[in-house]
Design a protein that fits this description.
about 325 residues, mainly alpha, 16 helices, globular
């Protein structure tokens, strides 16, 4: 992408700078390019990386489960992040809406690496976006992505909570009536909640679904928090509303599956987690919870199979270790 050096691109992709330099025919790896360039590399080039969470070859069938993020999506997001940064730094008008869509697409994959990429793309929008409404939406999504690092991918509570709360406050200041902003605040408060935070979080999430009744993610987040305080009937209604409102969001089905397990209905949970995987085939958390649902339904072999898949497609070591803790516990432990 324009505005980046070959060394920066190589480090982002996790490949050897000299190897990429040969394919790009660039002698100075520190030189910053002024235009986007397409570099053709041989098959298997990215598989030579040393990272434990390396991306598999993106030239595969769309329906196959691939470990980690599709490399074209990762590179596209990186390009757009750079373009937004460059535009903001020179006080020009950036295509914030396009960048926000790209970030949301990454976030909705519910993978550890794609969530981190969404965070990187959202930071300049939330902090220096030229349009107040877009900046507020970016801050709300940034807060949710930050919170998800702790709630879903095993990141430590500190400084995750501070980052999530800060972005949520920015979103609320930008648009106090935005449902996602209220949802972000409610979820951020549930990261190691202090006394009284749980009730206040429910109030924020309730306001979120009232402000944006068609936002399935808000309903799913409300369902999860109702489930944490064992209000299972209300949680069930909220989870089912989430799936109805936005049937293409895997987190909505995850929430419905979690509540079904809490209500002692493993067969319903299996159906919901399978729906989550239909929407997001590389969602390791959905595989992990499907494994637990199979075990609860007396299907131990199927459970072990899904455990192996979940650990294989998890895209970070911390996430993988956290999943192992859930398996050892034998139940999904809501953070």
């Amino acid at each position: 992408p324009a505005g980046r050096s070959l060394r920066q691109v190589a480090e982002a992709l996790g490949v050897e700078t000299e190897a990429l330099s040969r394919h790009a025919n660039i002698d100075d790896p520190e030189a910053v390019t002024n235009v986007d360039r397409v570099v053709e590399v041989p098959d298997g080039f990215l598989r030579s990386r040393n990272h434990s969470h390396e991306l598999q070859d993106a030239i595969t069938r769309q329906t196959e489960r691939k470990r980690g993020m599709n490399m074209w999506l990762a590179m596209d997001i990186e390009q757009k992040r750079t373009r937004v940064e460059t535009a903001l730094n020179r006080s020009a008008t950036a295509d914030d809406e396009d960048a926000l869509r790209e970030a949301e697409n990454a976030f909705l994959r519910f993978e550890c690496d794609s969530n981190d990429l969404a965070i990187e793309l959202l930071k300049p929008l939330a902090n220096r976006g030229r349009v107040l409404e877009v900046r507020a939406r970016g801050a709300a999504l940034l807060s949710l992505a930050q919170a998800l690092r702790y709630l879903a991918f095993g990141a430590p509570a500190r400084p995750t909570k501070e980052h999530a709360l800060s972005a949520a406050k920015t979103a609320i200041l930008g648009d106090p009536r935005m449902g996602r902003a209220r949802a972000a605040m409610g979820v951020a408060m549930m990261i190691e909640p202090a006394k009284g935070d749980a009730d206040e979080a429910i109030d924020e999430l309730t306001q979120a679904v009232e402000e944006s009744p068609g936002d399935g993610l808000n309903w799913a987040l409300l369902a999860d928090n109702l489930g944490k305080r064992q209000d299972l009937d209300a949680a069930h209604l909220a989870a089912e509303q989430a799936a109805q409102a936005e049937p293409e969001i895997s987190y909505a089905y995850e929430a419905a599956g979690r509540i079904a397990l809490l209500r002692g209905k493993p067969k319903r949970a299996i159906d919901r987690f399978q729906n989550a995987l239909r929407v997001a085939p590389t969602n390791a958390n959905a595989n992990a919870q499907l494994a637990l649902a199979y075990v609860a339904a007396g299907r131990a072999a199927a459970g072990r199979r899904e455990q192996r898949i979940a650990l294989d497609i998890a895209t970070s070591d911390s996430h993988r270790e956290w999943l192992k803790q859930q398996f050892e516990r034998g139940s999904w432990h809501p953070r």
